[in-house]
Amino acid sequence: MKKIKYDIAEEQLPILEPIKNTIPQWYKDSERHVGGKPILSPSNNAMKLCVPFLDTLTQGYSIPLICDVQVLNTNIGQECSWKTDPDPLSTRDSMFAKTLPIPTGHSSTHYVWKLHIAMQLPKGYSLLITHPLNRHDLPFTTMSGIVDADFDLHGGQVPFFLKEGFEGIIPMGTPIAQVIPFKRENWQSERSLGLWDKATLNSKRAYMVTSGWYKRNHWKKKTFE
After folding, report:
1. Distance between alpha carbon 220 and the CA centroid of its chain, in Å?
2. Which of 91, 144, 145, 174 could tie 130 with a disulfide, CB 3.0–4.6 Å?
3. Do β-strands 157-162 and 145-147 pair in parallel, antiparallel, or remain unpaired?
4. Could you give the percent of the chain with pLDDT greater than 90?
5. Peptide bond before 64: cis, by omega within 30 degrees of 0?
6. What CATH class does 5-188 carry?
């Protein structure tokens, strides 16, 4: 099993953890079948039976917010405050990325998460750092980056935007970024005639059963501890 090594700046800070530990309640409360009972035709399979969707919520690790952060709306915009050191975030000059499109529905202030964590991957591996996948319920959107992390990687800063008008507490431990290790490899795209027909046949096979064809025949378990 490959290892992602990490260390934290101060002992009291929350640690890197498998992001599967942060699966949101709205997913846990979702139905496997619309209305509760399975219906073969027309199929009433719901979100909870979508294995690719679940994989996004369980792939990789969570970088947690190191303390509670309060966001208040004021006459000069949103203001963030917290009670402890080290600082969990800061603002930066928007000129640093003046052409970067601001996510729809977010305020224009450029923030950065301060990552008080060091990480190291095995040789030949890189790290995707991104907003927690499919977590549009969070009151912010974290930008994405890829780092060749097979060295002693200091935490650094990750930019994010707050949702416009949000006011409240962002709790300590909230996943502020999802980190997914992957092996660096060279790729080349190539058209494969007949692939569409083969894929269509698999789609027909999947519809021959109530649910679970992909999981039983092709899905592979991914382990992050």
Report:
1. 20
2. 144
3. unpaired
4. 87
5. no
6. mainly beta
